[in-house]
Amino acid sequence: MDKWNEISFLINKHKEKNTSEEFFQNEIENIFEKLGWSRYRKEIISKHPIRVGAVNTVIPDIVINNNEENVIVVELKKSSQISLPKYIEQLTSYMRLLKLDYGIFIGDNLEIYYDEPTGTDEPIKVFEIDFHENNENGNVFLELITKDNFSKDVLKEFCNDRLEQITDKKIALTLLDELKSDDGVSKILSYLIEDLSNDYNENIVKSVLENLSIKVDSKNGNESLQKQIVAADIVQEKVIYTTSEKLPIEIIPNDVEEFKRQFIELGYAKLCYHYTDGTVKEKIWNKRAFSEKANLKANLRSRPEARKGKWKEMGIVKLVCKIDN
């Protein structure tokens, strides 16, 4: 951490003194030398000219060369200046002109830019570090850039990981916006209905949801949505079964109290539905709020597929509920 703290100290001193860009560049080159790179061996190339077209030339501040291969272009602005878009455009244009995947901006802070080889978009910022003492991200940067540790493969893996994190965060924010919308609240509701319907019959689910409201809040904002759930929103068609026949149920172990004890201890049981055509379909029954005092078979018959008449309509002939250790 001492090396990063020393770098932060030097950068912040220049910020306080508002030194010239030339002096600032020389100091940054000295810092790269502290990290093991050499001006003498032409690993730190200062003011490297790039021909653009027939007559024009652009000059990036620093190019880092490793084993006679240019690997990173560095753009500097006095530490009193933030990374304004025009400075970043300058850096990324140098990256494209030099055909380099990596660029570093150093000014008020330090930023790493990555031009994904298979991508067509502009290089993207994948890492940002403030020049503060004991900044853990500073150590991450030093491990990547120090000459003795430097590896293009490691740097590429780091940038790809960061790019994936950035992409995941964007997707998560988009999903959050969707869930805060009316459609999103309805989607949450549909998931809840589907989950409850796995364990309880239609009437129980309706009874619960008629007295329930869902409110979606964003932790990082003041927006919130509330949707009152009514039975009409949930069940489009009410089916009444008049038959008094009950679905045959077998439990394993066949002692009810022993079954309940094992069910509560394990947390789930396996439901095996036997059909008229000889097939057997299995589902997992999670314990949820089931207690030792609960009526086991009443709970099983409250399931959507086991309710009155429904099991016959589905072609079910028997339900076997077993503890599958």
Structure keywords:
single chain; 325 residues; alpha+beta; 3 domains; six-stranded mixed beta sheet; four-stranded mixed beta sheet; 11 helices; 14 strands
Please list the strands of the largest sheet in the order they lie side by side.
1-4-5-6-7-8
The ordered H/E elements are HHEEEEEHEEEHHHHEEHEHEEHHE
Oligomeric category: single chain
| Rg, Cα atoms, Å | 33 Å
Number of helices: 11
The strand count comes to 14
Indicate the low-confidence ranges by residue numbers. 227-232, 234-244
| Structural class estimated from helices and strands | alpha+beta
Fraction of helical residues: 40-55%
Please state roughly what percent of the residues sit in beta strands, choosing from under 5%, 5-15%, 15-25%, 25-35%, 35-45% or over 45%: 15-25%
Mean pLDDT: 83
Tell me the overall shape.
elongated
Largest sheet, in brief, is: 6 strands, mixed
Termini distance? 52 Å
Give the domain tally: 3
Describe the structure.
The chain contains eleven helices and 14 strands. The chain has helices spanning 2-17, 21-34, 85-98, 136-145, 152-179, 182-197, 202-209, 231-234, 256-266, 296-301, 310-313; strands at residues 44-46, 50-52, 56-58, 62-66, 69-76, 102-106, 109-114, 124-130, 213-217, 224-228, 249-252, 268-275, 280-286, 316-322. The longest helix is centred in the middle third of the chain and has 28 residues, at 152-179. The model is unreliable at 227-232 and 234-244 (pLDDT under 50).
Would you summarize the structure shown here?
With 325 residues, this protein is α+β, with helices and mostly antiparallel strands.
